[in-house]
Amino acid sequence: MKIKTLLLLGVFTLFVSFNIFSYPRDDRVLSVLSVNFANLKDGDKVTSPFKVIFELNGMLIAPAGEYTEGSGHHHLLINQSFIGKGLAIPADVNHLHFGKGQKEVELNLTSGIYTLTLQFADGYHRSYGKELSKTIQIEVQ
Question: Domains in the chain, please, with CATH?
Answer without folding.
Answer: 27-140 (2.60.40.10)
